[in-house]
Design a protein that fits this description.
single chain; alpha+beta; five-stranded mixed beta sheet
Length: about 160
């Protein structure tokens, strides 16, 4: 008989910011190699962002648990976009970032549960669009949940 894993998601508090920071670091270690100094500097900057943005009510974190054990996390950051010819004022968008599932819990619905909770939170708080940048690893999950590709490009200078 297959064991059913129960995934639950809760809102992160300021006491959980070190977990969010650790998960973001693990994510960046998996995605690309950085030096220890770069990670340390990034950790510090990200923790500061978490504190600053949460005080301004512009960031909410989520922690996922499988059968009561911490399994992953993610955040929604409320970020502004510039006016354009149709929309003449700044607009705030919900932006999903720092999605991470601990390796032992992958393929258990952890990321799906976090994304669905982030979608629900965003919609309930008046944000009709949720944006993100997907890694190759996450692209399939986001597509399955209804996210579509945009035409954004990048150059490293």
């Amino acid at each position: 008989m297959k064991k059913t894993n129960r995934v639950t998601v809760k809102r992160a508090s300021i006491r959980d910011f070190d977990i969010l920071r650790e998960h973001r670091r693990a994510l960046h270690e998996e995605l690309r190699h950085r030096t220890k100094l770069e990670h340390k500097s990034g950790d510090s900057a990200y923790r500061k962002l978490l504190i600053d943005m949460s005080k301004k009510r512009r960031l909410v974190g989520f922690l996922a648990y499988v059968n009561g054990e911490l399994a992953g996390s993610g955040c929604v950051w409320l970020r502004e976009s510039t006016p354009n010819p149709v929309r003449k004022q700044l607009r705030t968008y919900a932006y999903l970032l720092s999605m991470y599932t601990l390796p032992a819990y992958r393929s258990n619905g952890v990321a799906t549960a976090i994304v669905k909770e982030a979608m629900k939170w965003s919609k309930n708080h008046g944000y009709p669009t949720l944006l993100l940048h997907a890694s190759d690893m996450g692209r399939h999950l986001y597509s399955k949940l209804g996210f579509t590709d945009t035409h954004e490009m990048r150059i490293r200078l």
